[in-house]
Amino acid sequence: QVQLVESGGGLVQAGGSLRLACAASGRTFIIYTMGWFRQAPGKEREFVAAINYVAGTTYYADSVKGRFTISRDNAKKTVYLQINSVKSEDAAVYYCAATSSGTDRTDQTTYGYWGQGTQVTVSS
User: Fold this and answer.
1) CA 83 to chain centre
2) Which residue, among 106, 93, 25, has the nearest Cα to 61 in the 3D structure?
3) Are 87 and 122 contacting, i.e. CB atoms less than 8 angstroms apart?
4) What is the pLDDT of residues 7-29, one digit of tens each?
5) Cβ atoms within 10 Å, residue 61
6) What is the Cα–Cα distance from 90 to 7, expressed in whole angstroms?
7) Nearest to residue 120, comparing CAs of 46, 40, 50?
8) 3-class SS at 17?
9) Helix (H, G, I), strand (E, B), or coil: what is residue 109?
C-alpha cells in the first residue's frame, strides 16, 4: 500500500502563488507516476499535472501550462505543485495520486492511490 498526504492548501489572493506538497509513504518503490488532479464544486475531477517519479519527466494540462510546476524530491518522497499567477478558476480541492503505470497518466482511473485532498480557495 501507498499512503499519500497533501498539504499546503489554503486561501490565496488572485495573482498570488501557492505550493502544494504530497508526501508518500509505504511501498513507494512501486510508484512510477505521481499526479495532481483537482475538483471544483459542481465539476468533474480533472487532471492537472503528472511527473515520472524516477526520471522527473513532467506533463501538464493545457489549462495550467506556464503557471503550474510539478516537481519531486525523491529523498523526501514528496511531490510538489507550485501554482503561480493564481486565477479564480484554480479554486478547487487538489488531490495527489500515485500509480505504478507509466501510461494514461492523465486518466484518473490509472491511479490506484489517492490522498485526502487539500482545499485551495481564491480571493479576488
Assistant:
1) 10
2) 106
3) yes
4) 999 999 999 999 999 999 999 99
5) 16
6) 16
7) 40
8) coil
9) helix
Q: What is the pLDDT confidence band of residue 105, given thresholds at 50, 70 and 90?
A: very high
Place of cell 479564480: 88
Tell me which residue has cell 487532471. Answer: 47
Q: Which of 95, 114, 94, 97 is nearest to 12 (CA)?
A: 94
Residue 2 to residue 23: CA distance in whole angstroms: 10
CB 32 within 8 A of CB 44: no
Strand partners, 102: none
Q: Which three cell numbers stand for residue 22?
A: 504530497
The two counts, helices (H) then strands (E), for the chain are 0, 11
